Amino acid sequence: MAVLEQAYLDLLKKIMTEGNDKSDRTGTGTRSLFGAQMRFDLSQGFPLLTTKKVPFGLIKSELLWFLRGDTNIKFLLEHNNHIWDEWAFKNWIESDEYQGPDMTDFGLRSQADPEFKEQYKQELDQFTQKILEDDDFAQKYGNLGDVYGAQWRRWQKREGSFIDQIAQVIDQIKHHPDSRRMIVTAWNPEDVPTSALPPCHVLFQFYVADNHLSLQLYQRSGDMFLGVPFNIASYSLLLSLIAKECNLEVGEFIHTIGDAHIYKNHFNQVEELLSRKPYDSPSLWLNPAKKDINDYEMTDIKVKDYQHHGVIKAPVAV
């Protein structure tokens, strides 16, 4: 096996040394570069970071959530996945029904005020528990709008019907592998104002050559420390699932990022990560009995020989 994460480590170093210091929507501040690209040859292994532990279970459940066309965090919570909690929680605390303590700017305040952090944690725990227990509440406050799952599987047409972009692109790969139109998009200008988080992964395109399937993702905005390691593994997994269904070998995952940034409150974590020596990348196991992308369950997807350093915690900017 090879060390596939080197492209990621090199980009982190470049941003830290050459990046532009900028303000951002969250008020945290970033150091960023515009127009970055990383390439990962999946025939050499699976690009799950080894310089810190990345919870692959969260990546699996999130991708399966997308592929189900789901946009409600209840499915994620049922699989102990809390990646999207803060965005749903933000909708709840900004609603007229919320009567709890002031949670304005909870992301930044929880970093600076230990007492508030404990109060915020209690409110968030109560919120997620209510999502799990109360179907009506979950329907109202667990839904994130037309995020990835909806755009991938139920893109709404003008006349009211829907397009399943994933099914459509799989059909193209199988029957028109030389097409230059094998694209899935998540960016719908009409839906951006109502989405909890407008899509960062704007579009991805497939390419077939020499019986290998490759995928290029264009990501408008990439949180390099927390988000991008998940994105790399998630789209590499998506590529692997679709290649298997189409009887193709895996080729390259190419990750192109518009604003590739490191939040200023992640600088110490990045330095710690870069001080570590990476291990060989693990390999991916997919249940040989499964082929249709819609049939996979959590137990059908595993990584093998995953050797890694310890977890490095960092706050989420919301």
TrEMBL record:
Instruction: Kindly report, in one word, the top-level EC class recorded for this enzyme.
Output: transferase
Reaction catalysed by this chain? dUMP + (6R)-5,10-methylene-5,6,7,8-tetrahydrofolate = 7,8-dihydrofolate + dTMP
Active-site residue list: 200
Q: Name one GO cellular component term.
A: cytosol
What does the record give as EC number? 2.1.1.45
- BP GO terms, sorted: dTMP biosynthetic process; dTTP biosynthetic process; methylation
**A GO MF label:** thymidylate synthase activity
- Official protein name in the record: Thymidylate synthase
